[in-house]
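Our example copied in:
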Amino acid sequence: MQFVEANGARIPSIGLGTWELRGRTCARIVEQALRLGYRHLDTAQAYDNEREVGDGLRASGVRRDDVFVTTKVWTNHFAPHDLERSTKESLVRLRMPQVDLLLLHWPNPHVPLAETMGALAHAKQMGLTRHIGVSNFTVALIGEATKACPELLVCDQVEYHPYLDQAKVKEACTRNGMGLVAYSPVAKGKVKGDAVLSRIGRTYRKSAAQICLRWLVQQNVAAIPRTSRIERLSENLDIFDFELTDEEMEQIFQLASPGGRMTDFGFAPKWD
C-alpha cells in the first residue's frame, strides 16, 4: 500500500468509501475489505452507518491502530459546542476513543468559518481526532480555512475523477501541505464504458476502473471508491503492480469537461 503524506498524516492511497452502505451489508463489506488488506475507512455522520463501520472493523480482527478511520461532521453541527458534542457522539457510535481524521463535510456559510475551524482544532487538541481537514472546499475556502485554523489541515476531500478537472484545488492543497482525497473516483461507475480507459486497460490487463484509480494514485491523490460488491474490493486494491506512462496520464487528463461534476447540491459552494 502507498500513502499520501500531508502535514504529519499518512493516508493510505486506497480506502473504502461507505456512502450509501447500510446495516449488515455495510459491516460485512468493511470486514471483508480489511481482511483483503484495506487500511483506510471513510464514513460520515450523514451516512448513518458509523456504528456498522465500527462493527465491521472489530469483526475483521485487524488492530484498530493499523486502520486509518475518517469521519465527517455534518453542516448543522458547525457551531463550536455542537461540533464537539456531535464528534463525541460519532465516537460513541464507532466505539472508538478517537478517529484518525475528522473533516467538515461541506462548507456552511451560515456559521463563521473562523469559529468552526477553532472548534475543529479544539477537537484535535482534546484528542478526539489525530488529524483534521475539510471536504468540498474551494480554493478560496481552503485559503480562509488554513488562515483561520490554529492547527494544520491535512486534506480536502473532493469529487475527483477523469471527467472533472481539479487542478486548481489540488494546487491549493499542495501549497498548504495538504493532500487531496478523491471521492467518486470512478465517476459513479461511468468510467466502465470509457473507450480511452478501456484501451489503456488492455495494455496492462486492467479494468477501466483500475486505470482510473492508478491515474489518481500516480498524482499522489488518495482515492476512496465505494462498492457493495465483495469481488470489486480486491480489484480496487490491485493497482500497485503497474505504472501509467506520461502519455497515458495526459490522455486521461484530456477526458475532463466543464460538465463533468456529478455531485452538486443547492448548498454547494461556487465551484472553481
